[in-house]
């Protein structure tokens, strides 16, 4: 049945559109167009080959040749384990083709064929030495050299024929001579065909060997380049302190430019710089606490002469944000998690979307920018992006947005789970880990605290521990921290593989001011409520305002919201409280109106701008890692009220290790009362 009878044009068009590169699409269309003719050509070629092989199988002389080769091989190998062979491989005949005479044309195969023809004739014309029949008068003549007269060709043939003892053999000999020329010609054509086939096989083998050699050399070069880049990153990126980001040396483009042949060829430096700029594609988790450090790191990389594009999979990002300085921002619509489906289903959908879209985006950006994407920089919660990077032939770098202490906890759990250590023993081991501060079970991340039972956090625990599934395979690991803050944890994690602390990832305006116009993170999932906020802060005395914010994800219960509200009111302090729109219904009735003299409630704020304000005296925080780094960088004391995930561990370090804040105590129900506030 013709192939085209089953050809689905729509399906083919869909598959072609999924091919990321234009040249590959054209190749696919040309392949389909020429498919039938190519198949027909191959059929004819195989039919020719089959006919030639059939002729050889039916050739008596070819069988004689094979028999002669077998006997010769056995004779040459007498006394060895090969000396009694019953068969041999056909490719042995290639050796007969390779060996040529002094004329450079006649091969050993030709010589063997000629000898077989000569011997075959001798067998038909030769005299049976054991025959006792009476000889004819002519047979009584002496040998040619001894005869009194010279025999001509006809007489010689007649003599040989008459010497044959049986009439039937005489007839066979005469028929053989009659057909000899045609048999020889046929045999020559057969062996020429065989020689052509063997030469073709040898040519294909040589070509395949050359292709394989080129592939191995290419792989070797790629591995060498990868190792060079890894060594470059290892030596170029120094450990960074709070105020030393200006010494940041991670600059892959500088290496490419220094090793480029452009200068040798006389290419202008500006043109060479434009043509060889490295392109990094950054992919954060679509949550504000993950977008912020990724955006800031992208701006830092762009300041080091790399082209950087950040892609955010969210339908909530403000669409007018197209650039962050020199960083291009791309948004792809994807609904955030709102509890309508299970978290596992949401994560599967997110992974499927990113995996499907990334190859298309890489191809599009590589074409439109003129600088092919060379590296995927992904959030550590998306370790599977490394698989896509490898499939596309790109480097893969992971950004860990938590503290190094929390990373150490998750890494240790992942290693111990692989060793099948029971949860109860695992918890004790982690809490007493030497690279960490002395931790109680309550100081561990919330997902870890409930690991002994099948809690609602089990899937989230798998998610955070899964960050380290290919931890040692990524080309680079970056961590949003700095050595002087977590020296022991950083050193221990660095002993497992090379990592680079690059924090704190906050806008340069509030840190070292090395980047111009870098006063805010950039893409936001929330619209700030700035109505009168700055004016209100300006009207307050220095250090008199309590800033309260529990981040973008934590959802407090109604009872807890009420306790915080009445605690703030009873304190008599001025306060600025961020309550997301979805949480406002949990506030006590008329609380906003009753506290308008002392406090202001907003749905979202520019947190850095607030923390840097002279009137803010302390920060009541959920202890998210970004908020912690911001408060540390701006010197604002903290009231630690952790809620979940990594926040209990951060609170432990804030209160007891760094001693830059106090931690409120919860009652037996897990509620912080108004008295505690």
TrEMBL record:
Task: Check the record and name the PROSITE patterns matching this protein.
Answer: FH2, UDPGT
Question: Which reaction is the catalytic activity of this chain?
Answer: an anthocyanidin + UDP-alpha-D-glucose + H(+) = an anthocyanidin 3-O-beta-D-glucoside + UDP
Gene3D superfamilies assigned to the protein according to its UniProt record, in alphabetical order: Formin, FH2 domain, Glycogen Phosphorylase B
Its keywords, alphabetically, are: Transferase
Under SUPFAM superfamilies, the record lists: Formin homology 2 domain (FH2 domain), UDP-Glycosyltransferase/glycogen phosphorylase
User: Where does the FH2 domain start and stop, copy by copy?
Assistant: 1-245
Q: Name one GO molecular function term.
A: quercetin 7-O-glucosyltransferase activity
Key word Transferase present: yes
SMART domains xref list: FH2 (SM00498)
Pathways involved: Pigment biosynthesis; anthocyanin biosynthesis
Q: Which domain of life is it from?
A: Eukaryota
Could you state one GO biological process linked to this protein? Answer: anthocyanin-containing compound biosynthetic process
Name it: Formin-like protein
Give the originating organism. Salix viminalis (Common osier)
